[in-house]
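C-alpha cells for chain A. Residues wanted.
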C-alpha cells in the first residue's frame, strides 16, 4: 500500500506545480458572474442636487418640493380658470336674449284709455288686460262680501289704483282668453267652458278655481309699467 502511494506522489506534485503556475498568472481563468451586467447611467436624467451619490438628499428636499408645489399650483390654477370660462359660457348661453328681456317689461300710457274702456296688450307671450273702471263699478265690486267668493280676495288687494284693473288675460281653468264686459257679473266671461269673473277679475261662477292673476306692476302718473 505504501509503495502505491509512493508511486503516485510524483504525479501529485506535478498537479500542484501546474495549478500554482496557473494561479500566479494575471489573466485568471475564472471571473465573477455579476461583472457581465452593464448598469445604465441615469446621471443625465437626474437633478443636479441628487446626481452626486455622496450628497445627502435631505439637504435639497425643500427645493425639489418647491418645484413640485409650483407645478401643481399652476395646474390647478389653469383648471380653475378653464372651469370658470366654461361656467360663464354656459350661463350666457342659458340667459334670456335681448329680445326676451325687452318683452319682459312693458310701459303703457294710461291717458290714452278712456273710462270704462278695456285694452289688451301682449306681455311675455300672454294677453295683458287693462281696464279703466268707473266709480260705479268700483263701488259695486267692493260691496260684495268675501264669504260668497270662491277665491276670497278683496278688490283693494288686487289693484294699486282703484280706477285701474291690471290682470293676466288667461282663464285659470284651462288657459283660454276671457272676453271683457261679458258674463253674469259684468266682468269677464270665458267662452271655452263658461267661467265668469267680476270686474275685479275674481272667479264667481263656472269651473275656474281661482281668480285671474295680477302681475307685478307700478303706476307713476299716467304711466303703467308691468314687469
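Reply:
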Amino acid at each position: 500500500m505504501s509503495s502505491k502511494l509512493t508511486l503516485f506522489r510524483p504525479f501529485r506534485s506535478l498537479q500542484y506545480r501546474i495549478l500554482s503556475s496557473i494561479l500566479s498568472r494575471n489573466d485568471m481563468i475564472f471571473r465573477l458572474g455579476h461583472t457581465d451586467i452593464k448598469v445604465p447611467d441615469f446621471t443625465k436624467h437626474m437633478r443636479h442636487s441628487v446626481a452626486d451619490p455622496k450628497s445627502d438628499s435631505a439637504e435639497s428636499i425643500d427645493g425639489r418640493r418647491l418645484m413640485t408645489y409650483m407645478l401643481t399650483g399652476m395646474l390647478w390654477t389653469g383648471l380653475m380658470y378653464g372651469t370658470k370660462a366654461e361656467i360663464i359660457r354656459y350661463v350666457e348661453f342659458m340667459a334670456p336674449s335681448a329680445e326676451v328681456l325687452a318683452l319682459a317689461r312693458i310701459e303703457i300710457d294710461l291717458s290714452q284709455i278712456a273710462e270704462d274702456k278695456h285694452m289688451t296688450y301682449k306681455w311675455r307671450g300672454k294677453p295683458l288686460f287693462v281696464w279703466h273702471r268707473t266709480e260705479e263699478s268700483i263701488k259695486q265690486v267692493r260691496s260684495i262680501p268675501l264669504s260668497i267668493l270662491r277665491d276670497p280676495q278683496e278688490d283693494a288687494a288686487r289693484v294699486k289704483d282703484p280706477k285701474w284693473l291690471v290682470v293676466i288675460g288667461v282663464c285659470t281653468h284651462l288657459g283660454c282668453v276671457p272676453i271683457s264686459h261679458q258674463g253674469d257679473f259684468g266682468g269677464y266671461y270665458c267662452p271655452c267652458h263658461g267661467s265668469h269673473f267680476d270686474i275685479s277679475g275674481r272667479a264667481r261662477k263656472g269651473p275656474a278655481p281661482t281668480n285671474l292673476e295680477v302681475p307685478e306692476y307700478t303706476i307713476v302718473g299716467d304711466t303703467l309699467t308691468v314687469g
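The beta strands are 106-109, 118-123, 126-132, 164-168, 179-180, 188-190, 195-197, 203-205, 217-220, 223-226. The domain at 103-226 is CATH 2.102.10.10 (Rieske Iron-sulfur Protein).
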